[in-house]
Amino acid sequence: MKDRWEALLAVLRKIISLYQTILTLSQEKQQILVSAKSQELEKVTKQEEILVLEISKLEDLRRKLVGELMATHSIEGE
């Protein structure tokens, strides 16, 4: 059971890290838009897409871990 909690914490930390990276990219993107550099904009947008896909996979894993923890502790909910 402790392993599930540790796994959940690791997933949440990774999700936070990815969102922080997306924030940084969004700030870069804003500067790129202001300076009208289309190639750089495309590069940043692709990086954002990759991060969003990774977050989606981690969110699926997070849901699974939370479900397992809820089942272990007989907690009902969504």
Structural class: mainly alpha
The number of helices is: 2
Order of helices and strands: HH
Q: How would you state the average pLDDT, rounded?
A: 93
Question: What is the total tally of β strands?
Answer: 0
Helix content: over 70%
Descriptors:
mainly alpha, 2 helices
Detailed description of the structure:
- The chain has two helices and no strands.
- The longest helix is centred in the C-terminal third of the chain and has 35 residues, at 38-72.
- The chain is rod-shaped, with a radius of gyration of 17 Å.
- Helices cover 88% and strands 0% of the residues.
Q: Can you summarize this structure?
A:
With 78 residues, the protein is mostly helical. It has helices at 2-35, 38-72.
Summarize the topology.
Layout: H1 2-35, H2 38-72
Helix pairs in contact: 1-2
